[in-house]
Write a structure and sequence with these properties.
It is a single chain. By secondary structure, this protein is α/β, with parallel strands linked by helices. The chain contains 10 helices and 10 strands. A 5-stranded mixed beta sheet has the order 2-1-3-10-4. Helix 1 crosses helix 3 and helix 4 runs parallel beside helix 5. The longest helix is centred in the N-terminal third of the chain and has 17 residues. It is globular. The two termini are 14 Å apart.
């Protein structure tokens, strides 16, 4: 709950910083704002979007998916005003493809990687460290996470397991999902016996339980950068929102 409240507060600051008065006036006339956001941000940003609409009268249309899919859509010309990625790499990809506006990127949030199981699973809490045998823990079942070649949570998961020496034995057991919420659903429906997701996603799904937290030095920091897109509504320069940066751990 504390994370959700902090994320809500920071996202509101982000909205205020990236969409200043002149842009808000224009948006009020157009009555629309499109946000492309990583799937793991859905719950908190849905609340932010509702509050923003209530205050400004501007309807926010949010599209949630894997950061990779959203970055590719922006590259292909999909219209959006704001891009919120679940990792730095896909934001940098969007920057290279000229899909976001120079000088508007802000690294706002952080997250943790956790191991989950279905809520009523008999699997007890475990400690994760060097030599961790994920394959043995999964038994004959599947392990859900995002696609390890493109979806941020999957890339973090693979990096952590490689660092811990657990990837080679476990990789054949993975069920690759299109985004972190899809991986979460596989576990909650018991279609996978284990899953690797973000801590915040595990907290909002009553059908799963956290059985371990990955050591934070086993994978790159999970950072959520936000930026205006190249097709965003006009804005004027404003004070940098760097003071709103937050990396809850």
């Amino acid at each position: 709950m504390r994370y959700a409240v902090r994320l809500f507060a920071v996202a509101c600051l982000m909205m205020a910083a990236l969409l200043p008065a002149t842009a808000q006036e224009k948006l009020a006339q157009e009555k629309s704002l499109t946000v492309f956001a990583a799937a793991s941000l859905k719950n908190a940003l849905d609340d932010v979007n509702a509050a923003y609409t209530a205050k400004t009268g501007v309807k926010v249309a949010a599209s949630y998916a894997a950061s990779s899919a959203l970055a590719k859509q922006l590259e292909q010309g999909a219209p959006a005003d704001l891009f919120a990625s679940a990792d730095i790499e896909w934001m940098e990809y969007a920057t290279q493809k000229k899909s976001i506006k120079d000088g508007t990127r802000v690294d706002l949030l952080g997250n943790k990687l956790v191991l989950i199981a279905p809520k009523d699973s008999s699997t007890a809490s475990v400690q994760i460290g060097p030599g961790f045998d994920l394959a043995k823990l999964a038994g004959d079942g599947r392990i859900a996470t995002g696609d390890v070649t493109s979806v941020p949570v999957g890339k973090y998961a693979k990096a952590a397991l490689e660092k811990l020496g657990a990837w080679n034995a476990a990789q054949s057991k993975f069920a690759m999902a299109e985004n972190v919420r899809a991986a979460l659903t596989l576990v909650s429906r018991k279609e996978a016996v284990l899953g690797i997701v973000y801590e915040t996603d595990a907290r909002v799904e009553p059908g799963v339980k956290v059985i371990a937290t990955f050591p934070q030095d086993a994978y790159p920091p999970v950072i959520y950068p936000f930026a205006l897109t190249a097709t965003a509504k006009p804005r004027r320069p404003t004070t940098s929102p760097s003071s709103a940066r937050l990396h809850p751990r």
